[in-house]
User: Fold this.
Amino acid sequence: MVSCIGKTLLVVFSSLVLLMASSGQNALLAAGSAMEADEMAVAIQNRIEAANPRNPAPSGGERPSFTPGVKKFYARHGFRPVWVDREGPLPTADALLNALQKAPRHGLRPEDYHLAAIEDLLSGFWGFFGRNPLSAEESANLDLLLTDAFFRYASDLASGRMKGDKRKAHWYLRERVAPDLGEALEEALDSGQVQPVLESLAPITPSYIRLRMALFKYQEIDRRGGWPFIPSDAAGLKKGAKSRRVALLRKRLKISGDLNASDHFEITGGTDLFDESLDQAVRTFQQRHGLYADGAVGPETLEALNVPVAQRIRQIEVNLERLRWIPEDTGDQVVVINIPEFRLRVLEGSDELMNSRIVVGKYAQNTPVFESRISHFILNPYWYVPRSIAVDEVVPLILKYPEYFYWENMKVLSSSGKVIPPWEVNWEKVTASNFKYQLRQEPGPKNPLGRIKFIFPNPFDVYLHDTPDRHLFEKTVRSFSHGCIRVEKTTDLAMTLLRGKPSREELVSAMDSGEMKTIRLPKAVEIQVLYFTAWADADGFVQFREDIYRYDAPLQLAMEQAAHRTATEKD
Assistant:
């Protein structure tokens, strides 16, 4: 009996010893984990403090560089790591890496988001024989790189890669409001849905989504080797021609999707015959590039055919960048003008209420890119000749033709606004420095503003107006004005903005009266004057236009100069 009691006590004692040992080991493990986490937190804080430009650079002359949101985010988390733990990188780290590798889908470059450094650290963790533990310093570095990469990529998706004043890119619109990127990171980490959170930061407008799809298409064409070059001796090819260059043209248009791959040449002449299907394909190509669609391969069409696919990709990327700047909170009705397209549209939601051909400013007298609100329009307006036009263009005509004022139905106003006889001015002595008059052309058939002038406040003194020079709307390239925008369908535009009241008959009758009259809109309508040289239309066709003001190349350079620095920069 005593022996049984002794054995029982021995078992109980042994169990207590094992339990105490186990508890001690768990406590040691927990303490070790806490120590490792504290070491990483200290390492993270030290690297962030070293990035402060007020602090001296570390030995070696390099200073870590992080976006402003990084310090705020880690301070809120006690500088503890969020992408790694004592076991190594968390699944969210791989998810972010995967999202960065897909940055080209938005026309962005993965290498601008620490991709090489992140991949190098992750490859060091996954060694040849399995997992290799990272040191506290390596873990801290990886965590910081991932956080900084998230902020940089998220910022580029939400508001564009070019930071700062957009006026350097000739852009005078208010910017798209970016969400709180710190909150976005918190959501990505909590949910584990890193890529969906990042994708939600980019514009969700149909214009952006369609142009992204166009980018993917052209990237695929580039990966497959692009399209062939069409030699200059192909110029002049048109329907009915038979040439060895026709087969090359057919291949070029099939690759870009202008000629359906299933189309068959119509007669037995083979691929070297310029048949009806190829004629239609050339016309489609010409329409997509803003060229005169006659089906013939003229010099302009040949030049557009031979633009390399890599250049078209860059053109799409530049215009995706512009789309990331545009605010999405427009009113229920908006007038949208695309300068390189020479086109005005009135949109209401996803519906197009009307569109019209326009004439824009010539090069060096560029129509500005801006936004405003149309409040009213004037029927039979006066034209107050801008000073520069009056001095440089009108005064020489006055000297040459004494009857000029009679022909043009023009008045001379003094500095006080009083009409004075033109013969009281000694025009031979008028110069740019002493010109103190205002020239005003009366309403009538020769008035360059035509019969309607749409008013919206802006610092450029630009407005929409009618024109007597109707023949200019037949041109494919319509950059002829001094900066204002001439509209072909001004009456249609007025009726659309008025929402049908007064009636069209009443409006035309008021115009025919010849009297100047101001008509206010029932509600001010937003107007956006934009600049896009590449976009995808509602039917999915990728449109390209000439960069008439040469804005694309400087913007592309600005984007490259804004390429995000890697983990360090020279002090």
Q: What stands out?
A: The first strand starts at residue 62 and ends at 64. Residues 7-32, 57-63, 564-571 have pLDDT under 50 and may be disordered. The domain at 227-307 is CATH 1.10.101.10 (Muramoyl-pentapeptide Carboxypeptidase; domain 1). Residues 292 and 321 are 29 Å apart (CA to CA).
